[in-house]
Automatic annotation (TrEMBL):
Principal location class: other
Keyword Disulfide bond found: yes
Location of the protein in the cell: Cell envelope
Annotated protein name in UniProt: Thioredoxin domain-containing protein
Xref: CDD domains: TlpA_like_family
GO biological process: cytochrome complex assembly
Superkingdom of this protein's organism: Bacteria
Alphabetized GO MF terms: oxidoreductase activity
PROSITE patterns reported for this sequence: THIOREDOXIN_2
InterPro entries associated with the record: Redoxin (IPR013740), Thioredoxin-like_sf (IPR036249), Thioredoxin_domain (IPR013766), Thioredoxin_ResA/DsbE_sf (IPR050553)
Alphabetically ordered keywords of this record: Cytochrome c-type biogenesis, Disulfide bond, Redox-active center
Domain Thioredoxin positions: 307-461
């Protein structure tokens, strides 16, 4: 009896100790303190490297705390990036959160304020890891100088981490995380440089990216997504495959990295491809389902966004006009160029980068004049800017043959159809009128003609 009593007491003490141990939450909690009518957004990549946006809006007339919960088994790279256009000042923060974390952040004008006890919450306060869309490479420097500048930044970040660790400001685990972050940022910056004139440096970078992707990581980061895209495009070019959605996804599948990462990158390519009714899209979608899809991905609400569209878009609904004021439709463009490879140049009179590409494109047109290809200029100027559109054509000495302007009421339609968010934009259609590349190279790229010839004289995969 005495033995049973002792056992019961020991069991009771054990259970009491377990109940007093705090349980780790199965989610990340983000509390945002906002003033009346304030809005802010945070961005992160989920477990399939699909970018997600958390939007917080305080529509009340008093200060409020808005809360979002994120469920993930991995460390999330959460970013805040905004530009104060009036002051021409950028605000950027990046933080890394894991399951069980609960944070409190306040937005004061454009600046984020850390309300937690963790003074190291904003990694960007201590390391140079600004990868925002507002931070561009210094194009006044040559490639070698830019690469060296990125190496200097990496060394400075690693030195700072070692110093913080030596002074016991951060733990070994935090130091390990920050070192991985610093290396990721370095490779992200390197992968955004232009290696057109230095292919050997690109070879070295891709080799490094492949090694990095093969390693096990627990961070869902911008770097992973960018690295997969760079390696897939590199492999596609060097194996001389036809340049289209299907070959890109095939190369993504072949990369030695986690399947979930590859699924996210392939999903993004499918999602942004405009013609979801085409045979190319259907073939690629089936490839995705067979090689990269799984039940966890299908459970995501966004999985339905890439289901092939059965209904065809009415191209005749998009109305165009010529410099001579003749009227026609997008369907007429395809009918008049049936059996040819077609290249769309989407531009506008106010777009300086668009106009800068004209001389390169005109030279290509002349060199490929005898080839089975048509170059179609499509201006996106509003009706009231028609004169500006014509003036630019005359000033740039561009042939008005195959130059068209979208009538204003059709502008939104063509933008939605081809998901046009930025210009210049170049689309390539095969001889059957099927879109095969929705983000083709700019004419100033030295590989522009060579890649175009691959569509005119296609090679087998």
């Amino acid at each position: 009896m005495k033995l049973y009593l002792i056992s019961f007491i020991l069991l009771f003490n054990f259970l009491e100790k377990c109940s007093s141990t705090p349980r780790i939450s199965d989610h990340i909690t983000i509390n945002i303190h906002l003033k009346p009518q304030n809005v802010m957004r945070l961005r992160y990549y989920d477990d399939f490297l699909v970018e997600k946006v958390l939007s917080f809006r305080n529509a009340s007339e008093k200060d409020s705390v808005l809360t979002e919960k994120i469920y993930s088994d991995h460390i999330l790279e959460v970013k805040y990036s905004v530009m104060d256009a009036a002051a021409n000042k950028e605000y950027f923060n990046v933080l890394y959160l894991k399951k069980g974390d609960s944070i409190n952040i306040a937005l004061e004008e454009f600046r984020l304020k850390n309300l937690t006890d963790n003074q190291f919450l904003f990694v960007s306060d201590f390391l140079d890891v600004n990868s925002s869309i507002f931070r561009h490479a210094d194009i006044t420097k040559g490639l070698k100088d830019q690469m060296n500048s990125n190496r200097i930044t990496l060394r400075a970040n690693l030195t700072k981490i070692d110093s913080l660790l030596a002074h016991k400001k951060i733990t070994d685990s935090v130091a390990g995380l920050w070192k991985e972050v610093s290396n990721n940022f370095y490779y992200l910056k390197q992968s955004r440089l232009n290696y057109t004139s230095n292919p050997k440096d690109l070879d070295t970078l891709v080799s490094d990216l492949k090694s990095a992707l093969a390693k096990k990581t627990n961070i869902n980061s911008t770097f992973l997504s960018q690295a997969i895209v760079v390696v897939a495009n590199y492999n596609k070019t060097h194996t001389n495959l036809n340049d289209n959605l299907n070959t890109f996804v095939k190369e993504v599948i072949n990369i030695n990295t986690e399947k979930r990462y590859k699924a996210g990158v392939a999903f993004q390519a499918l999602k942004t491809f405009p013609e979801k009714k085409s045979s190319l899209y259907l073939e690629t979608y089936n490839l995705f389902k067979n090689k990269l899809n799984d039940s966890a991905f299908m459970a995501k609400s966004y999985a339905n966004e890439i289901i092939p569209i059965q209904k065809s878009f009415d191209q005749a609904a998009i109305k165009l006009t010529t410099p001579g004021k003749a009227s026609l439709t997008l369907a007429d463009i395809f009918r008049n160029n049936k059996g040819k490879v077609i290249v769309f140049d989407l531009w506008a009179s106010w777009c300086v980068p668009c106009i800068a590409e004209f001389p390169y494109l005109e030279k290509t047109k002349a060199r490929l004049a005898t080839k089975n290809i048509s170059f179609i200029g499509i201006g996106l100027d509003k009706d009231i800017k028609e004169k500006d559109w014509k003036d630019i054509l005359a000033k740039s000495k561009v042939s008005t043959k195959n130059q068209f302007r979208v009538i204003e009421r059709s502008n939104k339609l063509i933008s939605q159809l081809y998901r046009i968010e930025t210009i210049p934009r170049y689309l390539v259609f095969n001889t059957n009128g099927m879109l095969v590349n929705d983000h083709f190279l700019k004419p100033s790229d030295k590989n522009f003609e060579q890649r175009l010839l691959m569509y005119i004289q296609p090679k087998k995969d």
